[in-house]
Description:
By secondary structure, the protein is α+β, with helices and mostly antiparallel strands.
Amino acid sequence: MCLAYASVGEGDRFAAYREWGRRHGGGGEHVRTAPRRADGKLRIGYLSADLRNHSVARNLIPIVANHDREAVDVTAYSASSIEDSVSRHLQSMI
């Protein structure tokens, strides 16, 4: 995570991320794919305590807005009791 904020070039950052993946990624055997729903849609869930006026929610809005609703079923789980205009906007999109 520190590399994301370090003053290094993009090429060096990418090389470090690849090296980390080579060392710790395990070749993908830990990756599990869930079966598709009966209607063929992929179920996607977002979980955050920041689904409110916060950078996480503001970055998530365009992602949620551009999901192909014919292909995916989107759900969001908020780990916060804070409700504001941004959280209500996200709720209206899902």
